[in-house]
Write a structure and sequence with these properties.
The longest helix has 17 residues, at 291-307. The chain has ten helices and seven strands. The protein is of the alpha+beta class. The strands form two sheets. The protein has a four-stranded mixed sheet, with helices on one face. The protein has a three-stranded antiparallel sheet with strand order 1-4-3. The protein is globular, with a radius of gyration of 22 Å. 36% of the residues lie in helices and 14% in strands.
Length: 316
């Protein structure tokens, strides 16, 4: 029993800061090995999505093993890609063990997986629907910090500042979204990708008492036209004790992006060579705004207009 649950900066439970559970995870269930080829494939996909070293049993519950809505979305995408099945996201919550999911999947039709193509080179690119929404919301009065995604973590041990900064520069070079600015062209919001974006880690020396105020003051508004929309600070409290502070705008990142950012930062700092990315976020935005996808969205729009036609009930 904990006196209080550790929270992330945006008020959610910080699962990574929770102590390791006592005894076996997953409610003490015994491991039951996959019995069919489909169960074996599903168990392998689950293991990858949940980032688990231990094998997944067919009676294990996805959410007991650390699954949540973002990981469920990743799971659905991987199943579509690797198994050719369009498994509804809501069904991950209904059939949350491998054996239940395999049984439900056998009732679905197999659909072809289409990879998003790389977009042709252009001076600027359209925004995705989510980016359009965030661009407009960012213009509203009082919205200056509403869509910042800040974070802070304690780094203990020896730190090579030069290698640390080079690792972040490697991330900016690797991800176009960290070199993207947002502006209006001919009355339309667009994203422009720059070959380079000036990036520097902000260094400061503080004592323990100044830590909270330093982290609070680190979060400030971004100018969406000027990349990188990522800010990184390092507060040194002792030679082997630092606070890593980062702040990014929601128009170029989300919760999953931050996990990717931290994982790749550690790998680059360790001297690893990362595989080049096949596509970038702008390729997704171009694909999403294509005529084919717009036709798909038009069908969905027609469905909802039909669902809500006529007199609408007023919420209590």
């Amino acid at each position: 029993e904990l006196e209080r649950l550790p929270l992330t900066p945006n008020g959610k439970i910080d699962r990574k800061a929770l102590p390791a559970p006592e005894g076996g995870a997953g409610g003490g269930r015994e491991y039951v090995a996959p019995r069919t080829e489909l169960e074996a494939k599903l168990a392998a996909i689950w293991q990858d999505v949940l980032v688990r070293e231990k094998a997944v049993g067919v009676t294990d519950n996805f959410f007991d093993l650390g699954g949540h809505s973002l990981r469920a979305t990743t799971l659905v995408s991987k199943m579509h890609k690797e198994l050719g099945v369009e498994f509804p996201l809501r069904d991950v919550f209904r059939y949350s063990t491998v054996e239940e999911m395999a049984a439900a999947m056998e009732r679905l039709e197999i659909g072809s997986f289409t990879a998003i193509p790389a977009a042709e080179s252009s001076e600027y690119y359209p925004l995705s629907s989510a980016q359009k929404r965030l661009y407009i919301l960012n213009q509203l009065e009082g919205a200056e910090l509403s869509y910042n995604i800040p974070g802070a973590m304690l780094l203990e041990g020896e730190l090579d500042r030069q290698r640390f900064e080079e690792a972040f520069r490697g991330l900016v070079a690797r991800h176009e979204t960290l070199r993207t600015g947002f502006e209006m062209v001919k009355g339309e919001a667009v994203q422009r990708i720059y070959e380079e974006a000036a990036f520097q880690v902000e260094y400061v020396q503080i004592n323990e008492e100044q830590a909270e105020e330093t982290v609070r003051q680190f979060v400030r508004p971004f100018d969406l036209a000027k990349p990188p929309l990522l800010r990184v600070g390092l507060a040194e409290m002792a030679p082997d004790r630092h606070i890593l502070m980062f702040d990014t705008h929601h128009i170029v990142s989300d919760g999953v992006s931050i996990d990717v950012l931290i994982e790749e930062l550690v790998r680059l700092y360790s001297g690893e060579q990362l595989e080049p990315l096949r596509i970038q976020y702008k390729d997704y935005a171009v694909w999403q705004q294509s005529d084919e996808q717009k036709a798909q969205l038009a069908k969905q729009e027609a469905y909802w207009l039909d669902m809500f036609r006529g007199e609408l009930p007023v919420l209590e």
